[in-house]
User: What shape does this take?
Amino acid sequence: MDDDEDVLFNKLGFFVFQPVAQYYVSLNDKFYYVPRFYIGFGVGKYKEEQGRNTSYDLNASVFNIGLSLLNFEFKPADKIGIRFSAGDLDYKSTCIKDDDDKQVDRNFGLNFNLGATVGFNFYF
Assistant: This one.
């Protein structure tokens, strides 16, 4: 890459508050089905680089709501849980604002994550 070529990035970052409600359905002594409902709100910044010396910092916000329907948890001990999650039904709205303009991106999706997640819970 030459020194004259510009490497440009658009960066979007949020601070999100997202409470979660979940319900445990016992499948046996240590294995549970755990559907989750979540709703989140966030604020952040969007930085757009348009050239080597030109960039813009814009205000951004996000709202999301959803259901995680493919959640299971294995509890090998009373205070420890290992969670497996593979799918969401969700709605997400992202808004980027400057003084004169507002861009809103809305998404609704049913996601079956092929890259499923594994999480660890500690109960106190």
